[in-house]
């Protein structure tokens, strides 16, 4: 871990990353890609030491409150958050300035901040987004080795729902020949239904690879799935989008089960919902 002084913290769409790099070790992680110009090892986490000062300054200058997002490039609840508490302190600022929050994580550590998530959701809106890739915990330990397994994430989603906090699941990536099975999609969607997840984001059944994450992904395939790298190379070459041969049938299955369970699955509508800021008095439920 190392500290840097950041120049700014909020993106034009009010997203922020308090950390750079990630400790969770997902074998397919896109944030490793060279196009992001990370000038340090991915596991040597960069901590933006002035992030909270910058955030408070940015929130104070906002003409009106809005949704603040985090977690798109590094998980806000990776192990070092237990000591540093940057995410927790950012949530305290978000609450102080009357904004809403949405966080993307795979970690059950988010439960440690449930008091703040509830408080933000009570006055405005707080939405937790959680990625699920496989309902099989053994497979989960291979492809997402340093974060809690799917069954723990399921318990977390249930606890958040019990606390009144809306949850959205990202169903991705679906790795060709690894987790692209009907059994897996059904298993994940059953978890989502039982945890009363509001919506599921899914852009397709596949994975993207580019320079930087491709090499890491292939080295991990060699460790855990002998022969798989060669199968990928034969089928996809250097392609960016690696679509599962079962993409079409699995997407049909996904949409039909979401309809049956009453889970929202229109990506555009979900992103509109995520960006929509709500005051308590005017909270809207029409999207669901
Ligand atoms: S949790 Fe997200 S950012 Fe962290 S390694 Fe996994 S995919 Fe990458």
How would you describe this structure to a colleague?
- The protein has 288 residues and is an alpha/beta fold.
- The protein has a single domain, classed as Alpha-Beta Barrel (TIM Barrel).
- The chain has helices spanning 51-61, 81-84, 86-96, 114-123, 137-143, 150-162, 182-194, 213-224, 228-236, 247-261, 267-275; strands at 2-4, 15-16, 19-20, 46-48, 67-70, 100-105, 126-132, 167-171, 199-201, 206-208, 241-243.
- The strands form three sheets. Strands 2-5-6-7-8-9 form a six-stranded parallel sheet, with helices on both faces.
- Helix 4 links the parallel strand 6 and strand 7 (126-132).
- The structure holds iron/sulfur cluster.
- Iron/sulfur cluster is lined by residues 22, 24-26, 29, 31, 74-75, 106.
Which secondary structure elements does this structure contain, and how are they paired or packed?
Elements: E1 2-4, E2 15-16, E3 19-20, E4 46-48, H1 51-61, E5 67-70, H2 81-84, H3 86-96, E6 100-105, H4 114-123, E7 126-132, H5 137-143, H6 150-162, E8 167-171, H7 182-194, E9 199-201, E10 206-208, H8 213-224, H9 228-236, E11 241-243, H10 247-261, H11 267-275
Parallel strand pairs: 1-4, 2-5, 5-6, 6-7, 7-8, 8-9
Antiparallel strand pairs: 3-4, 10-11
Helix pairs in contact: 1-3, 3-4, 7-10
The structure holds iron/sulfur cluster.
Give the structure's gist in a few sentences.
The protein has helices at 51-61, 81-84, 86-96, 114-123, 137-143, 150-162, 182-194, 213-224, 228-236, 247-261, 267-275, and strands spanning 2-4, 15-16, 19-20, 46-48, 67-70, 100-105, 126-132, 167-171, 199-201, 206-208, 241-243.
């Amino acid at each position: 871990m190392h500290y840097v002084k950041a120049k700014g913290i909020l993106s034009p769409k009010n997203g922020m990353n308090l950390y750079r790099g990630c400790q969770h070790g997902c074998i397919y992680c896109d944030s490793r890609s060279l196009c992001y110009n990370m000038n340090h090892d991915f596991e040597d986490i960069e901590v933006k030491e002035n992030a909270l000062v910058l955030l408070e300054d940015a929130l104070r200058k906002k003409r009106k409150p809005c949704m603040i997002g985090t977690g798109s490039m590094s998980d806000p609840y990776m192990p070092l958050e237990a000591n540093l508490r940057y995410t927790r302190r950012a949530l305290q600022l978000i609450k102080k300035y009357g904004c809403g929050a949405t966080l993307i994580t795979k970690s059950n550590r988010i439960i440690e901040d449930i008091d703040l998530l509830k408080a933000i959701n009570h006055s405005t809106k707080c939405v937790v987004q959680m990625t699920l890739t496989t309902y099989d915990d053994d497979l989960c330990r291979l492809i997402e080795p340093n974060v809690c397994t799917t069954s723990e994430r399921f318990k977390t989603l249930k606890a958040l729902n019990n606390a009144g906090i809306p949850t959205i699941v990202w169903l991705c990536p679906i790795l060709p020949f690894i987790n692209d099975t009907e059994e897996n999609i059904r298993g994940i969607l059953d978890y989502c239904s039982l945890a009363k997840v509001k919506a599921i984001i899914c852009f397709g059944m596949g994975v993207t690879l580019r320079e930087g994450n491709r090499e890491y992904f292939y080295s991990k395939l060699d460790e855990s799935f002998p022969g798989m790298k060669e199968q990928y190379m034969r089928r996809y070459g250097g392609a960016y989008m690696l679509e599962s041969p079962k993409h079409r049938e699995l997407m049909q299955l996904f949409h039909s089960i979401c309809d049956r369970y009453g889970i929202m699955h229109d990506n555009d509508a979900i992103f509109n919902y995520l960006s929509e800021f709500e005051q308590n008095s005017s909270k809207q439920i029409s999207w669901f």
